[in-house]
DNA sequence: CCCTGATTCGC
DNA sequence: GCGAATCAGG
């Protein structure tokens, strides 16, 4: 099997959907899981959380969080103009923060003088230094204001797609209706027969007729064709 | 052992 | 470019 444009598109789509490489390989057919992964990488598709790489997440973010503070300003050894450094360091400016702004973490920012309870008009002076790029630095221990959670939304039951609106879905099955599958799982119109089941059987009368064949006398049976290999493996 | 994705490397 | 072999975590 070769990677035709059509197959590549399907690979991209399923990869984007988050399907596993094996699932994609199964669906495409003719390729291995490895082939799918290899192709995805060659295409430059987003890498996915890998069980192997996940272990590295622990040290990296912590280091990344600490590093920018040091890297944001020019390394001292690289700045020959000491006056420039002084200018940067002395460019701290007062910033007026409304009291109503979300408070910093409790343990943080001793500089923020506690306002008296009930005094909602009190503002607090916080000195902030301005970084080389013009951004306002956070003070040590300060935390970015928490992002307010999105307002809760009312959940509405999803409407079934029109194709299966009047079809019997998996969730509607019980022991009185026919569970004969029509179509194939995963296809948009996959559903079950839904007729009244033959009592004591999982299928309706018609499908029982398909599922259960009367046993023929031995002489009338055709021997099954020989299997192309040694037969199913027995463990 | 099964699964997963990442990487390597001979073709 | 391809993918089997291999690695390594869950």
From TrEMBL:
InterPro entries: GcrA (IPR011681). Residues 42-79, 96-168, 215-235 are annotated as: Disordered. Gene3D superfamilies: Homeodomain-like (1.10.10.60). Signal peptide: none annotated. This is GcrA family cell cycle regulator. Residues 60-76, 108-117 have a biased composition (Low complexity). Pfam families: GcrA (PF07750).
């Amino acid at each position: 099997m070769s990677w035709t444009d059509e197959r590549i598109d399907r690979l991209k789509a399923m990869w984007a959907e988050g399907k596993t490489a094996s699932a994609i390989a199964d669906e495409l057919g003719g390729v291995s899981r490895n082939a799918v992964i290899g192709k995805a990488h060659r295409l430059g598709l987003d890498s996915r959380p890998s069980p192997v790489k996940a272990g590295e997440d622990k040290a990296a973010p912590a280091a990344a969080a600490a590093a920018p503070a040091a890297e944001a300003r020019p390394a001292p050894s690289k700045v020959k103009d000491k006056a420039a450094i002084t200018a940067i360091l002395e460019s701290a400016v007062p910033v007026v923060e409304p009291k109503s702004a979300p408070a910093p973490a409790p343990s943080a920012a001793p500089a923020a003088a506690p306002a008296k309870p009930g005094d909602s008009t009190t503002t607090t002076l916080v000195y902030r230094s301005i970084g080389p790029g013009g951004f306002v630095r956070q003070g040590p221990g300060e935390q970015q204001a928490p992002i307010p959670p999105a307002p809760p939304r009312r959940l509405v039951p999803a409407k079934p797609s029109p194709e299966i609106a009047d079809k019997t879905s998996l969730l509607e099955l019980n022991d009185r209706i026919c569970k004969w599958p029509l179509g194939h799982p995963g296809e948009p119109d996959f559903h079950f027969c839904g007729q009244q089941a033959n009592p004591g059987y999982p299928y309706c009368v018609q499908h029982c007729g398909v599922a259960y064949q009367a046993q023929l006398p031995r002489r009338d049976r055709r021997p099954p064709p020989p299997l192309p290999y040694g037969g199913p493996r027995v463990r």
